[in-house]
Amino acid sequence: MRTADFDYDLPPELIAQTPAPSRDQSQLLVLQRPENRPVHRQFRDFLDYLRAGDVLVLNDSRVIPARLRGTKGGSGGQIEILLLQENGVNDWWVLLRPAKRVRAGIQLVFMDRLGQPAGLTACVLERNEEGHCRLQFSGTHNVLQDLESMGEVPLPPYIARSAPDFSPVDRERYQTVYARTAGSVAAPTAGLHFTNRLLDEVRARGVETCFVTLHVGLGTFAPVKSEILEKHVMHAELFQVSAATAKSVNHARQDRRRVIAIGTTTVRVLESVAADNRGRLRECAGSTRIFIHPPYDFKMVDGLLTNFHLPRSTLLMLVSAFVAPGSTRGCGLTLAAYAEPC
């Protein structure tokens, strides 16, 4: 398929800049296979689509305050970085803006919340073909420990905020209530709509909940630039599956009970591990580059809860594959659902 097949018009004014007052007050669009007839509900109505014996799998990765601001040594020019991937303690690949005239050896000085030098510096070691820079941090035992006091919530670029953004509301709401394992630079957003009370109601209906971890990176949301899907290469993302989750999901599959993934990141973990283990889950940790797009036959996931996704994104392609497994029809069906009036 062509990347252009997954394009659609997204008016900026339709992108909400603030969340609903309560997490579970968002709207819900239900598309049930095989009818694929859109039904408009509220998020709390998600309970109506569950049944006893279902296994709900959620991604418990925790978003780190991955955005830092500072200046370039010498010129004093303002810079902003987004931590992307840790190579080792204080050794990170980052997205640096502006990146023009950035070369190896340049020193960066980072600021605290008051805009004053924080004692944290970094040296640019190299720059890769994607334009990302590798930094070696100094002035700290581990830069990860400084993020809570210095870093900003890495909201996506289509969410407008004044800079810098240290809003406690954003810090709370751009995090799932069940986030545990720190490592993501973007939220697994489907789970943002759950409250602890709603999760208790899910379990009260005889639905089992379990967790995987996938640390969401920038690559998940990067637009597909190649014209043909098969030529796109996904960025690797780290994941972990516990023995308890593997046991719960495998038993559900054996008993023909449904496995429902909360978010595309959860789907990527389950399908990656299942593909390597003859359709079964096992306790493991590793990285995945799986790129799910039409046509794709799902080995593990029976239901999917996800947010809306940007045009030409790999996430939109995954959803399209799920709408019509094993065929290319899902693209048109998904875009038709996206065109439904609110």
Short description:
By secondary structure, the chain is an alpha+beta fold.
General description of the model:
Helix content is 18%, strand content 27%. The protein has 342 residues and is of the alpha+beta class. It folds into two domains: 3-63 and 174-338, QueA-like (3-Layer(aba) Sandwich), CATH 3.40.1780; 67-150, QueA-like (Thrombin, subunit H). The strands form four sheets. A six-stranded mixed beta sheet has the order 15-13-12-3-14-16. A six-stranded antiparallel beta barrel has the order 5-6-7-10-9-8. A hairpin with a 5-residue loop joins strand 5 and strand 6 (78-88). The mean pLDDT is 93.
What layout of secondary structure does this protein have?
Layout (H helix, E strand, L loop, with lengths): L26 E5 L6 E5 L12 E5 L1 E3 L3 E6 L5 E11 L2 E7 L9 E5 L5 E11 L5 E6 L8 H4 L17 H6 L7 E4 L11 H9 L3 E7 L22 E5 L1 H12 L4 E4 L1 H13 L7 E5 L14 E3 L8 H10 L6 H9 L4
Parallel strand pairs: 3-12, 3-14, 4-11, 14-16
Antiparallel strand pairs: 1-2, 5-6, 5-8, 6-7, 7-10, 8-9, 9-10, 12-13, 13-15
Helix pairs in contact: 6-7
Q: What descriptors fit this protein?
A:
2 domains, 27% strand, 342 residues, six-stranded mixed sheet, Thrombin, subunit H, alpha+beta, six-stranded antiparallel β-barrel, single chain, 16 strands, QueA-like, 7 helices
**Low-confidence spans: pLDDT under 50, at least 5 residues?**
none
What general form does the structure show?
globular
Percent of residues in helices comes to 10-25%
CATH first level of the largest domain: which class? Alpha Beta
Main pleated-sheet profile: 6 strands, mixed
**What is the residue-mean pLDDT, rounded to a whole number?**
93
